[in-house]
Amino acid sequence: MMVALDGTIVAIANPAIQKDLDASFADVQWITNGYFLALAVTLITAGKLGDRFGHRQTFLIGVVGFGAASGAIGLSDSIALVVTFRVFQGLFGALLMPAALGLLRATFPAEKLNMAIGIWGMVIGASTAGGPILGGLLVQHVSWQSVFFINVPVGAIALVLGLLILLDHRAENAPRSFDLLGIALLSGAMFCLVWALIKAPAWGWGDGLTWAFLGASVLGFALFALWEKRVKEPLIPLALFRSVPLSAGVVLMVLMAIAFLGGLFFVTFYLQNVHGMSPVDAGLHLLPLTGMMIVGSPLAGALITKTGPRIPLAGGMALTAISMYGMSTLDTGTSGAVMSIWFAGLGLGLAPVMVGATEVIVGNAPMELSGVAGGLQQAAMQIGGSLGTAVLGAVMASKVDGDLAGNWADAKLPPLTPAQLDQASEAVQVGAAPVTKDTPAAIAAQITDVAHDTFISGMSLACLVAAGVAVVAVFVALLTKRGDNAEAAGAGAGHI
Fold it and tell me: Which is nearest to 389 in space by CA: 253, 268, 289, 261?
């Protein structure tokens, strides 16, 4: 819950942090980027640590470190310290996530594993979607520091319960050594990939730096694959990917995250900047999505246990595609009831995918690699989220750049210089109207109408692209099946 919550809750606190610590916009971006970068780069290595030393120990260290880093952020009096401790949050969060899945895999027998992952998915989904609501309430009524301090008591409770309840499961043939060069190559490749995705909107997709980092990432992954074939105890045995269902599960997680996190990125701007909602109101309007994920995840776990993952996964991605298409029809006059239908459909479609794809990845991996498999699942989601935000952001920017000048001229507004048009375009890409304080009210209203109409045309195209990605994911879902190694789960099930 802490790791997923901190992925979205901080976005609401950023304006208050910027004002209180006198930070630049670039500094504030690093509050989010530093966290996701540390998380994405180290997830698989963290999973390997759990396989080697035990998931219980790794989980508890992650809990303590995450809570301590959160408290340190709340006590920080400079933006540099906030960003530094956010990186530590990401590193300890990377220890938590794969270890949680490893513990579930080791504890629950095959017939109960999907329900366990369903409850896990419910917590992840509710925390991710509920972050803006809780963040808005805390920032509005307490302080931005409270957004981070809240993790301290939660971490303390998790530590006490973990010490009392969690069992130390160790696979008989767990890895005995570390593939240090493999860790360095994979971490470097992941860093270059995520860094390129983070910076591409600012640098531009045609910029040499963007392609240099993407090229370095491809080279890093190629060298990693070559090395993994030679080393005695590889970080990720490449034989793992001979399992078509496991590989399909990883691809499915990437595609799901592109459609979900990439599409949701624009919806928050739509609610706040186009409809003029407060952060709390915007979060409340997303409750149908959150609610359906909370209700749908355990139900999806039960359904997948009975039928296998293939049909629920394909059906979930089909419903996601339909919902994203529906979201492409939203405009300035759309009612809350209509929004709720599409948001609820999205939550109901995502629930079986979150649960089923996770079971497919973790269940098709050997027990001794359950941590690595958990790291793969989380890394796929982080990369998909970064890719979705970057690619759909580029789609949005291109559409806005292409339409704004024509829409501006059609409204017979005063002409803009190229520099002014660029500034206006940046504002419109997040749904804001480029209106200055001294603009007459009638002209300001016209500019606002043009800005919102142009933003909505860009958001509609981005949602259509997300819907197309979800359609591709339907066919990927048909390649999945129940984990071949799921029966190995629950070695300690008799202790429950």
Answer: 261
